[in-house]
Amino acid sequence: MYLMTRLIKATGVKMVLSGEGADEVFGGYLYFHKAPNAKEFHEECVRKIDQLHMFDCLRANKSMCAFGVEARVPFLDREFLEVAMNIDPELKMIGRGGRTMEKQILRAAFDTPEDPYLPDSVLWRQKEQFSD
């Protein structure tokens, strides 16, 4: 993230939207596939969100501040979290109701064929691990 932020700064960008929180809210990590039921899936989401500030957010903030880039985290907005965490966890789980991808409910929200926000090649691509 540090190197990415350095590149962002070099392009003159002063503010970015960051995806911090999306994996935690929508069960996007690959191990969420193994959740035995909706209750445990939801409990793990809550646990990950509760710990997010100690790891991912702290790392992102330090990297961004080092180069004077401001990061906004829309998936951690209080109102967004209230809505997203009250979605039936069953609807977020892979392998239930025809869902075959992580964060499928979130991807579907951006899938607007009449006015595409993202190309399908980005919207529906397989998740890849990103780390520092």
TrEMBL record:
GO biological process, one term: asparagine biosynthetic process
Domain Asparagine synthetase: 36-132
Residue intervals passing through the bilayer: none
Keyword Nucleotide-binding: yes
Taxonomic superkingdom: Eukaryota
Keywords, ordered alphabetically: ATP-binding, Nucleotide-binding
Molecular function (Gene Ontology), one example: ATP binding
Entry protein name: Asparagine synthetase
Classification lineage: Eukaryota, Sar, Alveolata, Perkinsozoa, Perkinsea
